[in-house]
Amino acid sequence: MSQTPFVTDLMAGVVAKNPAEPEFHQAVLEAADSFELALDRRPEYRRAKIVERLIEPERVILFRVPWQNDKGEYQVNRGFRIEMNSAIGPYKGGLRFHPSVNLGILKFLAFEQVLKNSLTTLPMGGGKGGSDFDPKGKSDDEVMRFCQSFMSELARHIGPNTDVPAGDIGVGGREIGFLFGQYKRIRNEFTGVLTGKGVNWGGSLMRPEATGYGAVYFAAEMLKTRNKTLEGLTCLVSGSGNVAQYTIQKLLLFGAKPVTVSDSSGYIFDESGITTEKLAFIMDLKNVRRGRIKEYADKFKGAVFTPIDAKGDHNPLWNHKASCAFPSATQNEINGKDATNLLKNGVFVVSEGANMPTNLDGVHQFLQEKILYGPGKAANAGGVATSGLEMSQNSVRINWTWEEVDAKLHTIMRNIHRNCFETAETYGHKGNYVMGANIAGFVKVADAMLDQGLV
């Protein structure tokens, strides 16, 4: 796509200042033309250099994390926290533990988080962090020692009114528990500094389910605009963590038919559909036994396992007949060829449970074909929205019921959808949820930045 002079100049600066950070470049580029529409209507944003300030983190924290494995050997990893923007509230965003973690990936995630958190209507700024530590294959004691070392440094930079991290890839309930315990030990206070906590010590019901449920709620809202429902629709789901598991669970409750699930080793295709019984097996496999998804195909007749092809130019998971796709694994898992395959096979709904799972080529194809495409910053905002609800419960020391939290989540996702839909229409791009999400998220943050002066 051709770029306007504003976008060209902006991206030249981004690339020059942030070399070797392609994911961050991609995230800014995907949003830049939307921002320009807002700048044209609100010239004060341009004068105040709001976009240029928004893409520059308020603070970047980089530190070493020394720890000892079970063999007594010393290990050293890198720890990060990107405190991106606090115009509408304390920094809020997950911690990711994965070998791929680097500055560029975390900056892209933090930038997306600012807009996503703005869309929730809750008072949360945007941040992201993590480490290149890989919890996979580590013992509980090794994970605990790493988390304690990581938090020993991070603790001085976070707090319930400053920065409230959560989980992400590689950081589940076990890791949040170890991190919270160390924070409490260092600071001598029991406070809502992390979300995703255990329900019996400050956590919120519905938090594990929230991102997956939210992505399905968003898809259902998009379908309503065309007088359709999820009932009977075949759905492709990637990933096998919390997001994928609860996406599948909610799809089943809506009467849909999920047929795929994956991990880093490959994916399974179950033409007969993943049932509640089969989902229970996946949850035990991934959450308790921490096994590989191939075991699903060994267990259930008719399911086919396809190993990952590192040299392949597309992901065969996205090459099956279906109506809906829920990418719920990681960034850029849908490339241009995958998008072509999805469209060819009848997919007309894409609701992103992961962060930026579709590359720019794929996004352009979805928009050109005018399918119902919910970008991650809108469709997967249910997770951080429920984290915000956990913060609220911690602040007043109460616990809402599962039904109360689910009702609040459903309302938030309806409001996000309406905001994106109406904003896109207002700016002359009806049905373009990418434009709607980018502009709606941006305007709220931009107005707060104007109010607070040059800081």
Question: Can you summarize this structure?
Answer:
With 455 residues, the chain is an alpha/beta fold.
> What's the rounded overall pLDDT mean?
96
CATH structural architecture of the domain at 208-379: 3-Layer(aba) Sandwich
Main sheet specs: 5 strands, mixed
Residues in β-strands, percent: 5-15%
- Straight-line N-to-C gap: 34 Å
CATH class of the domain at 208-379: Alpha Beta
Uncertain parts: none
**CATH T-level fold name of the domain at 208-379:** Rossmann fold
**Overall body shape:** globular
Compute the number of helices.
17
| Largest sheet strand order | 1-2-4-3-5
Walkthrough of the structure:
Among the domains are: 59-204, Rossmann fold (3-Layer(aba) Sandwich), CATH 3.40.50.10860; 208-379, NAD(P)-binding Rossmann-like Domain (Rossmann fold, 3-Layer(aba) Sandwich). It contains 17 helices and 13 strands. The protein has 455 residues and is of the alpha/beta class. Helices cover 48% and strands 15% of the residues. The model has no long low-confidence stretch (mean pLDDT 96).
